[in-house]
Prior knowledge:
The chain is of the alpha/beta class. The chain contains ten helices and 28 strands. A hairpin with a 4-residue loop joins β21 and β22 (437-438). α9 runs parallel beside α10. The relative contact order is 0.15.
Amino acid sequence: MLQKLEMFSVFFWVFFSCYLVLVDQTLASVEVLKNPDMEIVNFDNNWSCKGGCTLTSSKDHYSGSRSVMVSNRTANFNGLAQNVVVTPGSSYNFTAYIQLLNMEQGAMYQTVETKMTCKGSPGKKQKHSFEIWTRQRQIHVMYIYKFGATVNYLVDDASLQVVEENANWKTEANARIEKIRKSDIDVVLSSASQNEKYQVELIQNTHEFAFGSAVGAKQIVDPNYRKYAQALYDNFEWAVLENALKWRLMEWTKGKIDYDTPINALNALKGNGLEHWDVNNENTHGVYFETATGNPNITNQMFDDAHAVDPNVKIFLNDFGVMEQFASVPLHNQAKFLKQAGVPIYGVGIQSHIKNTSLDIAQMKGRLDMVAAAGLPIWITELSLASNDTNSRASALRDILTLYFSHPAVEGVLFWGFWDGKIFTPEVALFEGPDVTPNEAGKAYQTLFKTTWRTSVTRDVTGDSTFTVRGFKGEYTVKLSHNGKELKQETFKLGSTNQTINIDVGKTYMKLQL
């Protein structure tokens, strides 16, 4: 995992975490490391130095009274290490707090990684960054490294524990969905004829939760792609332009900026009731602007400048490798840093390009929880799930969407394309062919979006009546009919507060009450 640390005159403790994946199995959470809190000042039989370096007990600490100082390093692969025994059929989570004692000369940032070296066949060592597979109990050497060779650092509160599988995760997720994605709608019918029958319809038109996709700016306005556009409008409520608003794509030749392509696409999307937003992209992995300007805090200024131009725009960090790899902690740390610095950041974008259908839900939820701990809303900004087997993809898609929809910090999910005719790889598509027809994964998505997570209720009532419906949050139409004739119709929004709909049959309007 890459952890970007900014250069300050005072160095502070930074949380560091990664997952070591073997295979899924439920095991009790037992600490694997010896002397994980560094309170034992003698490091014999617990911690050691891999390569040329020195370990010294330090009174500087994150918790307790001690940490370990790693110094006198001669290469970037020198670092704190420990031999550990891992068990087959398990997933591990490693965490630690790290404090830099100095920066490498001329560097704005430092990178930290965790690596394991394990014995495979006799006499042969295998190195792995984070992900390892084994079929027998083996001794692995786990070590922290990658800092510049002249950098000294402290480590405290390290931990290596099994991530427990939760067999009841979906039941718990659906319970959270019922609680956080719904509110009550109380319908009160008055001044009705005592023995007359009426019909009340509650129809959800849109979701409060965002379901959307990336789209091609040129295709969305091209009459030859009419079916592509219609599939977008029929199956999604939000859209983001895939590339047309990116600087390099807008200005292939310096000074010649293509505004027309994105503006035409945005106008078409707005005209069909869809909204869009853009993000500050992949900042924990890239330091282009910082390096080019020599300013380690240029990202802060970019957020401030964007907010000054339009204070109504919700500004996001957005990054990859969070759900499928190990960037949850760096993203959490940067989001928290920007928030505490007073930067006008609204939320955090998690791209979520999943390259197989074998999902570890416990790990994924842990990563979501880590990012959410920064205290900002989350959007899943580039969801893709890769598999040539559309049935397998459909099953995994139901699970991952259930996880995202059930998480209280997540406000929306945007797919990174939906049609195999305009997508970065066809094995992630939801729709196929010239008619833009849903495949099994697309049908699974449609069922969730149009049926499972949407409220549509018709009630037959007699005379004055009261009934309650628990509905998904979003915009609704309520209709009152009598003997097949529609008497009145209104729209309303259902949010986190319960909504009361007072229908006076004798009046031409309905009264909506929060």
